[in-house]
Specification:
Low-confidence stretches: none
CATH superfamily of the largest domain: Glycogen Phosphorylase B
Radius of gyration: 21 Å
Number of strands: 13
Shape: elongated
Distance between the termini: 7 Å
CATH topology of the largest domain: Rossmann fold
Order of helices and strands: EHEHEHEHEHEEHEHEHEHEHEHEHHH
CATH architecture of the largest domain: 3-Layer(aba) Sandwich
Strand content: 15-25%
Structural class: alpha/beta
Number of domains: 2
Mean pLDDT: 90
Helix content: 40-55%
CATH class of the largest domain: Alpha Beta
Number of helices: 14
Length: 356
């Protein structure tokens, strides 16, 4: 039995791909799994551990300029046949795709070869590539309840898969490993792999009685390091692929609301204050956050109308009332399915079994 997982281009597509692979191997350790990735650095870094089971395709984009648009038909045909050749060579039993342009051509190629294709939409508003790919897929799964209505042929809610390798550590142990002083609340600021200037700027304006963990992103690291050099209660870092220690140490998180960030914070039962990226396609980050907020697990603020003082006012109110924190954690317990990655793994393996 051979499973092929297509997911690349961003951490938001790669993390669920790895999560499902880990869940398959946990249940069916003899399963052969190959990955289809893109040439981007994030793919190389996150898939590095899987060696020669990672295969690179370079799908065309339509947002790179006039020349790319003119060459799109040629590149699309070329990439379709490359994907088809790869799937045939691998002897794939089933294709699982995590969305975006890197997944589209493998899904279409799988359909042409009679290979079952399953796609997963991680956001609350389905992306354009997934909406199109769904027409060639056999099954559509979603990470948010609200996304199921965004597909013409219907979809099933599975939740967003979280990597099993994201271990939940004892809070005291995590804080000791991160050199956090005893007895202080810890607020984790996450701006995504590229960082987020608005989140970074708010983090370095923290009150003196709060310890800040700031994952600021590489492009803003120098500026933030300089501006926070006189602060004692802050730990500044680049994007990390394994944030388990950060999650385990945090009392509250302040973050963008990309699908996998929301899923991981929910999985770790961390009450969050979300500041959605205002330029996300179809404003999907806002809707991701609102699905959690509406159930009582988070707060959401709009970047254009929120300053650091307002953000810290909300954070301080939460830190001062443990009853609110506990209610938010209880809500998060109800929101996240028990094991989305395991659920998806069973669906994929069952589909592979039917085709073999």
């Amino acid at each position: 039995m051979r499973v092929v997982i297509a997911g690349g281009g961003t951490g938001g597509h790669i993390s669920p791909a790895i999560a499902v692979a880990e869940a398959i191997w946990e249940r069916y350790p003899d399963t052969s799994i190959d990955f289809i990735a893109t040439p981007r650095p994030v793919d190389r870094r996150m898939y590095e551990q899987f060696g020669d089971t990672v295969h690179v395709l370079n799908p065309p984009r339509i947002d790179r300029g006039i020349l790319d648009i003119a060459l799109l038909p040629f590149r699309a045909v070329r990439e379709f046949f490359r994907a088809r050749k790869l799937l045939r060579k691998l002897g794939s039993s089933v294709l699982f795709a995590t969305g975006g342009y890197p997944s589209f051509f493998p899904v279409v190629a799988a359909r042409s070869l009679g290979i079952t294709a399953i796609i997963h939409e991680s956001n609350s508003i389905p992306g354009r590539a997934n909406r199109l790919a769904s027409r060639f897929s056999d099954k559509v799964l979603t990470g948010f309840h609200s996304a199921t209505s965004g597909f013409r042929k219907g979809a099933d809610y599975s939740g967003n898969p979280v990597r099993l390798s994201l271990q939940k550590y004892n809070k005291d142990y995590a804080r000791e490993k991160l050199n956090i002083p005893d007895g202080v609340p810890v607020v984790l600021f996450l701006g995504g792999s590229q960082g987020a200037r608005a989140i970074n700027d708010a983090a370095i304006k923290a009150p003196e009685n709060v310890f800040v963990l700031l994952q600021c992103g590489s492009r803003d690291r120098k500026r933030i390091s300089e501006e926070s050099s006189n602060l004692q209660m802050i730990h500044v870092m680049d994007f990390v692929d394994d944030p388990a220690l950060l999650y385990s140490a945090a009392d509250i998180a302040v973050a963008r609301s990309g699908a996998m960030t929301v899923a991981e914070l929910t999985w770790f039962r961390i009450p969050a204050v979300y500041l959605p990226y205002p330029f996300a396609a179809d404003d999907h980050q806002k809707w991701n956050a609102l699905e959690i907020t509406d159930k009582g697990g988070a707060l959401v603020f709009i970047q254009d109308t929120t300053d650091a003082a307002a953000l810290w006012g909300a954070i301080s109110s939460l830190l001062e009332d443990d009853r609110i924190i506990q209610r938010m954690k209880a809500s998060l317990e109800e929101i996240m399915p028990v094991n989305p990655a395991g659920t998806i793994a069973e669906i994929v393996i069952n589909a592979a079994g039917e085709d073999s």
